[in-house]
């Protein structure tokens, strides 16, 4: 699976199967053996997207994801930690898939009353591994400047990274995602 991904942080335990009735009206949905969903979007216009390929250029996946790496460091700034996460991902990359995934994330976040984990820092597309602390600080400052320029709430959430380090991911509310969708540099992290 080589495409972009986003996480839906749910306020209460839910399953990907709960999304099936919402998706069936405009998607071809298949339930997988692990109770996750794989689907093609047949009508992008349902998400407010007109003029995109029909069906979607590649399948999408919705399934459970572990919050373990975040739980180790807590959820600073959140009134209540998420009860569960559902990962939403595209199997392929490309501008249409980023756009479809972004609007699909918005659609499902509204229905699940979820926060959105962007899977990394927006505005910075590369790993923090093997860069100096000074360069890391500069890149984080650039990412913070970008997200602070948009409406909505966003948190820079720490998570336990491989090898004992600490990584960061932007987690935003639905208002923030809506403003990010309209930004000229919009993308979902791959």
Q: Which strands sit side by side, in order, in the main sheet? A: 2-3-4-5-1-6-8-7
Return the string of H and E elements: EHEEEHEHEHEEH
**Average pLDDT over all residues:** 90
Low-confidence stretches: none
Radius of gyration, taken over Cα atoms and rounded to an integer in Å: 16 Å
User: What general outline do the C-alpha atoms trace?
Assistant: globular
Residues in helix, %: 25-40%
In DSSP terms (H or I, runs of 4 or more residues), the helix count works out at 5
The counted number of beta strands is 8
How far apart, in Å, are the first and last alpha carbons?
Answer: 10 Å
Strand content: 15-25%
Secondary-structure-based class equals: alpha+beta
Largest sheet: 8 strands, antiparallel
Structure explained in plain terms:
It is a single chain. The protein is an alpha+beta fold and 190 residues long. The chain is globular. The mean pLDDT is 90. It has helices at 20-24, 68-71, 95-112, 133-148, 174-181; strands at residues 5-10, 27-31, 37-41, 60-65, 84-90, 115-117, 154-160, 166-172. A hairpin with a 5-residue loop joins β7 and β8 (166-172). Helices cover 27% and strands 24% of the residues. It has an 8-stranded antiparallel β-sheet with strand order 2-3-4-5-1-6-8-7.
């Amino acid at each position: 699976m080589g495409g972009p991904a986003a996480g839906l942080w749910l306020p209460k335990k839910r399953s990907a199967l709960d999304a099936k009735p919402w998706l069936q009206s405009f998607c071809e949905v298949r339930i997988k053996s692990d109770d996750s969903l794989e689907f093609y979007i047949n009508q992008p216009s349902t998400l407010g997207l007109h003029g995109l390929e029909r069906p979607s250029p590649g399948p999408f996946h919705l399934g459970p994801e572990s919050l373990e790496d975040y739980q180790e460091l807590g959820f600073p700034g959140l009134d209540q930690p998420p009860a569960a996460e559902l990962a939403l991902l595209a199997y392929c990359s490309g501008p249409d898939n980023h756009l479809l995934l972004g609007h699909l994330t918005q659609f499902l976040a509204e229905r699940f009353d979820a926060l959105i984990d962007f899977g990394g820092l927006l505005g910075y597309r590369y790993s923090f591994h093997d860069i100096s602390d000074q360069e890391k600080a500069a890149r984080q400052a650039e990412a913070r400047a970008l997200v602070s320029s948009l409406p909505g709430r966003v948190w820079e959430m720490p998570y336990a990274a491989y090898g004992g380090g600490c990584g960061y991911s932007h987690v935003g509310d639905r208002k923030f995602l809506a403003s990010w969708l309209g930004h000229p540099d919009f993308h979902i992290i791959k």
